[in-house]
Amino acid sequence: PLVEFSLAVRIHNIAGVALIVAYAVFVIANIVGRIRHYDAAMLESCRNAFMFNNTGNLGVALIILVFSHDPFVVNGQTPYLAEAMVVQIIIFMIQSISLNTLGLYQAGRGRLTARDTLSVMFHMPLLYVLAAALIARYVGWDAKDFFLWPIMDMASKALLPLAMVSIGAQLSQTKIQWLDKDVWIVSILKMTVLPLIGLAMI
Question: What does residue 171 show for φ and ψ, rounded to 5 degrees?
């Protein structure tokens, strides 16, 4: 019970920090949009670009890279890696839920009606997977007893390599506009202001 309480407190703390950071970058995106005189659709795109990051693929790889090397290696072991991965997974879940709800809503504003946006949101499998996971945890059901667990376990091990391959394939088909001023503004602010906000939260 003490371990579960500690984990619950940690989840609440991480979620609180994530929400504060999201609100801060939301305000920054609004400021940029006002200065750059963005229309409604462009403003929502700017908000999404600021608020959501690739925490699943790049975040996991970065955590492994950092916490598997000095100074985080003790006697040949990586005692901080598991805890860092737990924090990363919690952040990834928060980002995924936000992206598939608020992110889709913001992306649809100016292009889709509210009804169409909600329809797109409720077609996202992640929401139903999360609901099923919460229900299973609430009733105390062990997912390992499910007959598809071996397949799910193997799929989880293949997730990261498959994600990296899919990102590479997508980037190879993506047309990059190197001289787009708005992209540079958002990118530079994300690489400078966001880390400072995160550091201030520690």
Answer: -65, -35
Distance, CA of 53 to CA of 98 (rounded, Å): 11
Distance from C-alpha of 174 to C-alpha of 48, rounded to nearest angstrom: 18
Residues 140, 181: Cα–Cα separation, whole Å: 52
* pLDDT tens-digit readout, 10-33: 677 777 888 888 888 888 888 988
Which two tokens mark 154?
């193997």
* pLDDT, tens only, 141-195: 877 887 888 887 887 777 767 777 877 777 777 777 777 788 888 888 888 888 8
Q: Which residues contact 143 (CB under 8 A, 6 or more apart)?
A: 136, 149, 152
Distance, CA of 10 to CA of 5 (rounded, Å): 9
Q: What is the pTM of this model?
A: 0.68
Yes or no: say if 198 and 21 are a contact pair by the CB < 8 Å rule. yes
